[in-house]
Design a protein that fits this description.
With 232 residues, this protein is of the alpha+beta class. It is built from six helices and ten strands, in the order E-H-E-H-E-E-E-H-E-E-E-E-H-E-H-H. 27% of the residues are buried.
Length: 232
């Protein structure tokens, strides 16, 4: 059985451009210096089927959603993630990779990845699950600057300047390289519902959709969904 590396409840809130300075100030004043890695770059490439099965799970509001991605924190990618989300929370499975770097126009090949020996068992199990969906191809690249905060077991991140990029994979898109018109704050906790002073202070729009989904929508249609437009 594949055991999750981490399991938690996750809450996402949209941060409009005009509120970013205030949100950042509140987080820093309440929790500044609380995380050993307070700031850094996050770079992820998400994979999907030819039929966009994982995108459609988000589009249709499925209770269970699956994502496969490789992630890096600089100039290369060194982790493979399987993220499984349902109404009971989020489970993330992670394997460490031999770092790979991409040149402009290159596709990452999920099936040519090599893992570090310490993660071999987890890597094989993630790939075994991936193979159940058929061939997976790179769908979208999402990169941003992440600010990190902690309070007890609660992890708070503020993801700013979120860039989304497509691949030359035959998909008809409106944009191939653009940015989300807002920023995203995420709260990860074992609590069913976190009770923090900042929730009342900030009054942000909570959403259930991921950067993967919002980014693909923006690339496909050239705009975000109407219900989020007032928050852009």
């Amino acid at each position: 059985m594949l055991m999750p590396k981490t399991q938690y409840n996750e809450y996402k809130l949209l941060v409009p451009h005009h509120q970013l300075g205030y949100v950042r100030e509140v987080l820093t004043s309440l929790y500044g210096g609380s995380d050993p890695f307070p700031m850094g770059c996050v770079d992820s490439i998400y994979f999907d089927t030819l039929g966009d099965d994982f995108y459609n799970e988000c589009l249709n509001g499925n209770a269970q959603k699956t994502k496969f991605r490789i992630r890096g924190y600089g100039n290369s990618f060194n982790q493979l993630h399987l993220k499984a989300k349902d109404i009971y929370g989020v489970a993330k499975y992670k394997a460490h990779l031999e770092a790979i770097s991409l040149k402009a126009g290159e596709w990452p090949d999920l099936y040519r990845l090599k893992t570090q020996s310490s993660s071999e068992a987890t890597f094989k199990k993630i790939m075994a699950i991936a193979n159940q969906y058929g061939p997976l191809y790179p769908s979208i690249r999402v990169s941003y600057e992440r600010l990190r905060f902690r309070v007890f077991d609660i992890r708070i991140t503020l993801d700013i300047n979120i860039r989304v990029q497509g691949f030359n994979n035959g998909k008809d898109v409106f944009f191939n390289d653009t940015r989300l018109p807002f920023h995203v704050m995420e709260i990860k906790t074992s609590d069913i519902r976190p009770h923090q002073p900042l929730m009342g202070l900030l009054r942000l729009k909570q959403v259930s959709f991921s950067k993967f989904y919002m980014g693909l929508n923006l690339m496909k249609y050239g705009q975000i969904e109407p219900e989020y437009s007032q928050w852009a």
